[in-house]
Fold:
Amino acid sequence: MAVLAVTLTGCSAGLVTRPTPDASGVAPKGSATSTKGSVAGAEGGQAGAASKLPGLPTAEKARTALDGLKVAAQGSISGYSRAKFPQWSSQGDSCDTRELVLQRDGTDVQRDDECRPVSGKWLSVYDNKTFTATADLGIDHTVPLANAWRSGADTWTQDEREAFANDLTHPQLLTASTATTRSKGDRSPDEWQPPLQSYWCAYARSWTIVKATYKLTVTQDEKAMLTKMLDTCTP
Structure:
């Protein structure tokens, strides 16, 4: 029985509770044929990808937010599990969070009647490679769940952690190649940086504003690397 593919426009977000703005004013399986590793134009492609991220602050605002973050040593990983951050919550119209991020970040995305992308093209922002198969892609949490746990999320409620893991309002979720998401793991910017240095500016802006929104701490080394990455931003 043939599956009717329609353009991914009908999914609506907003069922996951959003964080309250803080004092800074910031509001807190289908597969297609793969074209692995084809490299897009670095500058234009990266600028376009960054522009799709919701809530991405300017470099100046990110620097201000970074100055306001509490510096502290990482807490214990004891008690952490991914199950404490429920992922890919339903967002209505048969869509879950992952499917909405794939819709947002891709071009010419088409879905089946269960909201699963069946065709499209995606730019992996960390390594500037394009893909046409979702099996080659991961949805990365800019601030990894385990890092969040060690920097304050261990005191949150389950609902608050679910909101963090499914945040479509801030630049916390993005599409990247499986290879880079696995390489990154739960490491912070002082331990891992996107292979594509031209993306460092957007990455530091994203990481900083997510931590500021959720009032998470940073280590001294983490803050130093974020400062270095923000210094790559053009005026």
Remarks:
- The beta strands are 6-7, 38-39, 90-92, 95-96, 106-111, 117-124, 129-131, 137-141, 173-177.
- The chain has eight helices and nine strands.
- The first helix runs from residue 42 to 51.
